[in-house]
Amino acid sequence: MTAKIIDGKVIADEMKAEIAEGVKKLAAGGIKPGLATVLVGENPASHTYVGMKRKMCAELGIESFGHELPATASQQEVEGLVKTLNADPKVHGILVQLPLPSGLDEEAVLRAISIEKDVDGFHPINIGRLAQKGREPMFVPCTPAGCIILLKKAGAKLSGANAVVVGRSNIVGMPAALLLVKEDATVTICHSRTKDLAGVVRQADIVIAAIGKAEMIRGDWIKPGAYVIDVGTNRKEDPTKKSGYRLVGDVAYDEAVEVAGAITPVPGGVGPMTIMGLMQNTLRGAQMTAK
Ligand code: GUN
What we know:
Order of helices and strands: EHEHEHEHHHEHEHEEEEHEH
Distance between the termini: 50 Å
Shape: globular
Number of helices: 10
Bound molecules: guanine
C-alpha cells in the first residue's frame, strides 16, 4: 500500500484565501491587521523564518512591524519593547522569535506579551489553558495547530485514536500532545529516554514526529494505515544538489510512505501550515479588537 500524501501547500493555500477574505472585510471597516516581530540576536535560521513570516504578511495585506535587537540586549530592553507593542493599537499580534540568546529569561519575555496579542500561543496562561479541561486558550501555537488541521483534512479520526508524539519541545511536541488530548485521542509522549521507541510508535494510529533528527523514524516502526505528520526539517548531505544538501524530515519518508495510510512530505507538509496559522491568529487578533 502507498500512503496518501497530505499536501500542506494546498491546504495552506486554501487557508490563505480565507484569510485574505477576512483581511478584506476588516479593511472595509478601516482596520488593517498588524503583526509585530521581535528578533533578538543574529541566529541566521531565525532571520530566515521571520523574513518568511513578514513576506506572507505583505502578500495578505497584513501590516508587519519588524523589530531587531542585538544579542547583547538586556532583559529590560526586550520586555520594554514587548510592553510598547502591547500598548500600540496598530499591533494585533506580537511574535518573539525563539530561541532567544542565552542569558535572557524566555518565560518572562513571553509572560510580558498581552494574552490578547499572543499570536504564537506561548504565553504561560495560554499554554496553561491548553493543558486544562474545559478551558480555552486565546491562541493555539501555530505548528501544532497546523498538525491537527492536516490530520483532520486527511480524514483521520482523532477521538479514541492512539496518538504518539515523538518530541516534547515547548514549541511543538508538548502543545501538539495537549491538542490531541483536547481532541479525545489517547496520547503517548516519547523522548530521548523512552524505552523501545520503535515498539511504542508501532502502536500508533497517529504519529507526530518532532524530534529534529533526520530520518530517525523508520518505515518498519509505522503501523500499517497510520497517519504520519512529520514536523522535522533537517539538512542531509546530497552531492547532487547545488547547495550540497537537501531537506529531510524526522521520518524515513521513502520507507514510511509504503506503510502509512497518509503522510506529510518534507518540505511541503507542516511547514506551510505554520506560517498560515500565524497569519490566521493575527487576523483573529485584529477581529477581536473590531468587536
Ligand atoms: N522558533 C521556531 N518555531 C517558532 C515558532 O513557531 N514561533 C516562534 N516565536 N519561534 C519559533
